[in-house]
Amino acid sequence: MRAYWAARNARARNAAAMRERLGLSRPALEHEAYAYLDGAPHLRRHITKALAMHLADSVWPAVERHLFRDASGRRQGLLHVGRWHDFTRLPDRARSHTRERKWETFRLHGSLTGHRARFTGPDGDFKEPRRLVVPEGTDFGPMRAPLAVVMSGLVEGKLVLPVRLPTAPCNQPILDHYLLDPSRWHKVDLVRTRSPHVPGGWRYEAHLMVLTPPYVSPLSKARRAEVAKAEANRAAGIDVNVSNLIVASQVEGRALRLTRVERDRAAREGEARRGRRERRRQRALERSRRALNRAQYQLSKRQEKRARRRAAADLAPVEVIPQGPRLARGGGVPLKAYRRDQLSQSYRRLRAAQAAAAASAAQARRDRARRAAAELVRLHGYNLVVEDAAISAWARNWGRGVAAFTPGLLVSAIDREARTVANLAGHKGGLVRIPTRTTALSN
Fold first, then answer.
1. 110: phi then psi, degrees, rounded to nearest 5
2. I want to staple 145 with a disulfide (CB 3.0 to 4.6 A). Which of 95, 110, 165, 171 is the partner?
3. Span 107-123, average pLDDT
């Protein structure tokens, strides 16, 4: 790509021919992967040419976003070689629904019924499955077999990865919705995510794409149907603030309802505890980075004063962790990039724990917003109005309060729930954003 942008004259004459000459196309990337695999035949014990082709195909969308402008006229940045820790997905292509038993690299074997019969014990927990390699030609049995991800085409045979499913009773309808009909299974990707509490530090998952609508619980269906039938004439207005949200609704000037959403005392205390844990974790990360990269940091004023005092007293210097700023150029750019620092395994585990805690908190906030939105739409209907305010601009003055209450996340959840109910009712309801410049208070 650097050669492509450097060849201005060739691009001006025929850009497509220049891209073909440099190998900037999907088939060219696939052939590069084939050549790499042919040059390293020992890799055929671990991967197949189909898998290499899928990996090359996953690179092409990023190349395409860099070469060509999008609808807004922008391009993505230049690609670069990533780190080993950032490589987390083995992509696959979709199965063929025109040919029987036609999969690509990975396929899902077995059935949900067979899986429950095989792995569910008397206490309701699944037994611990193990990884195994099955020789070529082994019969996997009928569809009553347990679920397993099968990778074919290896030199030593098929690689079978047993699947573990949740056993909680509340998860069984979801499993029935997605896994009960094998004809809807479409695509399987192998994914790994950093998990500090798992042996080895990684959690491995198989992400299955299913050709079916998303699962909706019976209670949610009944609630939405009731709202779509009973609250068609109710109109509501939303007042969004940094730390609370107020909804008021009425039906032709009668039946007034008022609801205030804010964080209670338990939520504030929990947020304070999470903040303290995060600050302690961040200090530990900073100490670990400074301890392994002492040459990139200056001593603090107190440390320099102590060093001068010991030197004046003819005492041996003391090895300390620098607490001063990082060595940088005149413009504030560090002399050595942070990504080139030496990091310890404890640092990586602590950073993985930090990422896991942040993901857990984000998931909890989304779940709270979803439940609050469902309750508000149930009480005030699906015809809502809110001022079109830039919530992101509030963060400049009330950043901590906005991050704790997340009003934008709550408004987005209300919008999705209202539109879902409006579509169910067959109306054009939903959340309408009114600009404040063109409106005024009534007399």
1. 100, -165
2. 110
3. 79
Fold of 220-266+357-434: Nucleotidyltransferase; domain 5 (3.30.420)
The answer, yes or no, to whether residue 200 has pLDDT greater than 70, is yes
Of the candidates 83, 93, 96, 97, the residue with the CA atom closest to the CA atom of residue 52: 93
CB 379 within 8 Å of CB 231? no
Cβ-based burial of 51 (10 A; exposed 0-12, middle 13-18, buried ≥19): buried
Q: Where are the domains of the chain?
A: 2-81, 106-210, 220-266+357-434, 269-351
Length of the chain: 443
Q: Which two tokens mark 435?
A: 């600009």
Tokens at residue 17, please?
Answer: 């021919």
pLDDT tens profile 352-390: 899 889 999 999 999 999 999 999 999 998 999 998 888
The DSSP annotation for 292-358 comes to H-GGGBPPPHHHHHHHHHHHHTTPPPPP----SPBPB-TTS-BSS-GGGS---HHHHHHHHHHHHHH
Collapse the DSSP code of 126 into the 3-class scheme (helix H, G, I; strand E, B; otherwise coil) and give the result: strand
Calculate mean pLDDT across residues 195-204.
85
Place of tokens 């919008």: 415
Q: How confident is the model at residue 134 (pLDDT cuts 50, 70, 90)?
A: very low
Q: Could you tell me the pLDDT band of residue 296, with boundaries at 50, 70 and 90?
A: very high
Closest CA relative to residue 376, chosen from 239, 241, 265: 239
Looking at residue 426, what is its pLDDT? 85
Q: Which amino acid belongs to residue 120? A: T
Write down the number of H helices and E strands in the chain.
Answer: 13, 12
In the chain, the largest separation of any two C-alpha atoms, in whole Å, equals: 88
- pLDDT value, residue 255: 85
Select the more confidently predicted residue: 237 or 436. 237
Q: What is the SS3 assignment for 108?
A: strand
